[in-house]
């Protein structure tokens, strides 16, 4: 009995933990305090699919001269000394997190997921991240400054000198919008992918959104969105 | 028929408990020299005698006793100071795993703690120490191959959030102040993300958090500006980060605290829970009551003296400023002790109440009544309670402060000297000199352990 009383006063800790493997068709877990796998994974899948669906099929000859960047790298144009024929090269610069949440270990995983999905499309080939990092170090340009034409050219030249010509620069941005209502809140997560044609400056932009509700109690979901239907005030 | 003996089963049990309690207290008093041995190791380390400190700590950590965990944590700091960051990382990783695997409550140890004191409980590091384990793991990794540094920094940030949530759930007051983030954890994350050259947004967030926690850490304003609109370094330059574990960290000693209203309220709730449990299998005649206790033994924070104030940096013979305080470990410890104090006192009150009830029951079953019963209760209760000791186990070799300095340098080889200075700027010794290689666009880390007048470099 006294043990029980002292146990009441004991600070808690994690205790034993067990792990298990998930099957491919198991549901992703929904985060209770922040976006998790059930939010990010569908956002990436949808936004990448939309983007690839809108981008032109860009199989074109590729070359580069002694200065590094090819003088004949416009999509679909002829070249005088082709070294290879293949898909357009996409340089995925990175993900900018402008949301209200820290992404912690998810950010790098989302990068790899987007990178892999773009790479799996027949018409695109993604430049190695190590090449991208090396070019960023060499030019000391910030990813968000690559929208400026001069910076874009300098960056593409740096990649070209490494033997990696580039056709598109791709950026991903994560934003969020939060609506609070007493002990419940709704947060909308938006993942935007933006692809800039480095030769023409044309931009293709696609996004995907997932809305998520957070409640202090389990009935909050039903009260606001279920039988209670109180979400609209 | 068997239940009609002169002393009933109940009374036998009560007397046995009292006897066992006094016996355990005697054993507990016999072990009282162990914390002093830890203190000897800590003093030897501060004086620069790493070998002596290591020898003592290896001995203490080898036995599976109640201070072995604290000794293992201290031993990891010795390994780091000896220039063996990989060994320190392995030790801390093992301790992190063991601590995470501890059960929420250990009933056998809790039962023993009723008969003796909090020293019988399983040693569980304070919340800030758990965060510091992960932070020091990141520091160890930065001193060697840097492979897992970012993961450890992330784990430190996550653990902090978990502790704050747990504290809020327990109803601790002023959770935001008592469990505010430890600035070194987001700072390490910030410098690592900035070094990627593409995750400046993460770096800016991390630096902003550092600024919120420690607005008096002046360099963070330049860090925020750089992460928000600048770049890691100028072309052709790299960055040297000096991470200094400066001064002797806080240790716990036994002190006395008055029983506060908050503590008595918590104890009262716990005893009420006991009563409701007792009423199911007892007539409530000997129900535990809240005793009239003025003060109890509790751990008290003490900062061992150390004359070092900061580390002055000399690069290629030129003075290059000094490290600045990013995390004040002594303040973290003070906050934690203060937040936990009502629970610490409440445990002591419940323990005292339980002992008094058991002594009273034993006296009654022995047939004592009136004045003789009072004398028996007073004598047995006083002897039993007087041997209680406060739980002073802690990670005593943590530094008093963690200090940092960021120095942008041209790529190439540089000679770096770290000199310990006191708060008047007077050098305390020659310090340590090390040649370092700065790589264009990269970070280089120099980790120094400076408990007092001597400096040890952790880099292998």
Automatic annotation (TrEMBL), chain A:
List the InterPro entries hit by this protein, alphabetically. Answer: LpoB
**Species of origin:** Stieleria marina
**How is this protein named in the record?**
Penicillin-binding protein activator LpoB
Q: Which Gene3D superfamilies match?
A: ABC-type transport auxiliary lipoprotein component
Pfam families listed in its UniProt record: LpoB
Q: Which domain of life is it from?
A: Bacteria
From TrEMBL, chain B:
Under the heading Gene3D superfamilies, the entry gives:
Tetratricopeptide repeat domain
InterPro entries according to UniProt: TPR-like_helical_dom_sf
Domain of life, per the record? Bacteria
- PROSITE patterns reported in the protein's UniProt record: PROKAR_LIPOPROTEIN (PS51257)
Protein name (record): Tetratricopeptide repeat protein
């Amino acid at each position: 009995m006294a043990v029980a009383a002292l146990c009441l006063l004991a600070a808690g800790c994690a205790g034993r933990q067990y792990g298990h493997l998930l099957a491919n068709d198991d549901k992703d877990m929904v985060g209770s305090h922040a976006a998790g796998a059930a939010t990010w994974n569908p956002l990436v899948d949808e936004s990448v699919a939309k983007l690839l669906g809108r981008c032109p099929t860009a199989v074109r000859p590729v070359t580069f001269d002694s200065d590094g960047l090819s003088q004949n790298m416009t999509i679909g144009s002829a070249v005088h000394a082709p070294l290879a024929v293949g898909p357009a090269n996409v340089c995925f610069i990175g993900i900018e997190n402008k949301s209200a949440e820290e992404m912690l270990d998810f950010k790098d995983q989302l990068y790899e997921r987007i990178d892999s999905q773009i790479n799996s499309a027949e018409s695109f080939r993604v430049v190695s991240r190590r090449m991208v990092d090396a070019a960023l170090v060499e030019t000391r340009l910030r990813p968000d400054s690559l929208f400026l034409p001069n910076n874009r050219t300098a960056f593409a030249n740096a990649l070209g000198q490494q033997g990696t010509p580039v056709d598109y620069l791709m950026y991903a941005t994560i934003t969020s919008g939060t609506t609070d209502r007493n002990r419940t809140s709704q947060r909308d997560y938006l993942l935007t992918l933006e692809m800039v044609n480095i030769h023409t400056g044309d931009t293709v932009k696609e996004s995907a959104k997932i809305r998520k509700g957070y409640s202090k109690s389990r009935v909050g979901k039903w009260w606001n969105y279920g039988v209670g239907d109180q979400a609209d005030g | 028929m068997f239940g009609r003996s002169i002393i009933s089963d109940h009374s036998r049990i009560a007397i046995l408990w009292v006897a066992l309690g006094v016996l355990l207290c005697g054993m507990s008093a016999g072990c009282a020299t162990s914390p002093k041995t830890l203190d000897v190791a800590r003093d030897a380390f501060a004086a620069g005698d790493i070998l002596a400190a290591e020898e003592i700590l290896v001995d203490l950590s080898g036995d599976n006793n109640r201070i072995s965990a604290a000794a293992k944590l201290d031993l990891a700091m010795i390994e780091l100071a000896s220039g063996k960051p990989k060994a320190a990382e392995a030790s801390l990783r093992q301790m992190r795993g063991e601590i995470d695997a501890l059960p929420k409550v250990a009933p056998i140890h809790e039962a023993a703690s009723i008969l003796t004191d909090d020293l019988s409980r399983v040693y569980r590091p304070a919340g800030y120490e758990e965060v510091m384990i992960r932070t020091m793991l990141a520091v160890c990794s930065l001193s060697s191959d840097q492979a897992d540094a970012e993961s450890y920094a992330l784990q430190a940030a996550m653990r902090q959030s978990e502790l704050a949530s747990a504290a809020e759930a327990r109803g601790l007051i002023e959770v935001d102040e008592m469990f505010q983030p430890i600035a070194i954890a987001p700072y390490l994350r910030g410098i690592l993300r900035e070094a990627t050259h593409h995750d400046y947004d993460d770096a800016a967030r991390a630096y902003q958090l550092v600024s919120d926690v420690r607005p008096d850490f002046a360099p963070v304003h330049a860090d925020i500006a750089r992460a928000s609109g600048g770049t890691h370094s100028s072309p052709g330059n790299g960055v040297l980060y000096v991470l200094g574990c400066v001064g002797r960290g806080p240790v716990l000693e036994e002190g006395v605290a008055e029983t506060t209203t908050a503590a008595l309220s918590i104890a009262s709730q716990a005893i009420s829970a006991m009563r409701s449990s007792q009423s199911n299998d007892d007539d409530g005649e000997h129900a535990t009551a809240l005793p009239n206790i003025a003060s109890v033994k509790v751990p008290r924070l003490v900062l061992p003296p150390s004359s070092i104030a900061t580390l002055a940096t000399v690069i290629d013979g030129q003075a290059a400023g000094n490290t600045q305080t990013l995390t004040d470990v002594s303040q973290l410890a003070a906050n934690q002790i203060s937040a936990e104090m009502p629970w610490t006192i409440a445990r002591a009150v419940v323990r005292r109440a339980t002992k008094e009830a058991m002594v009273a029951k034993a006296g009654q079953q022995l047939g004592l009544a009136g004045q003789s019963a009072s004398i028996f209760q007073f004598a047995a209760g006083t002897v039993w309670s007087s041997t209680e000791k406060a739980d002073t186990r802690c990670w005593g070799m943590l530094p008093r402060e963690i200090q940092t300095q960021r120095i942008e340098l041209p790529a190439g080889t540089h000679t770096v000297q770290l000199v310990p200075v006191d708060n008047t700027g007077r050098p305390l010794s020659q310090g340590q000199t090390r040649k370092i290689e700065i790589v264009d666009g990269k970070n280089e880390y120099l980790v120094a352990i400076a408990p007092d007048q001597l400096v040890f470099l952790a880099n292998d």
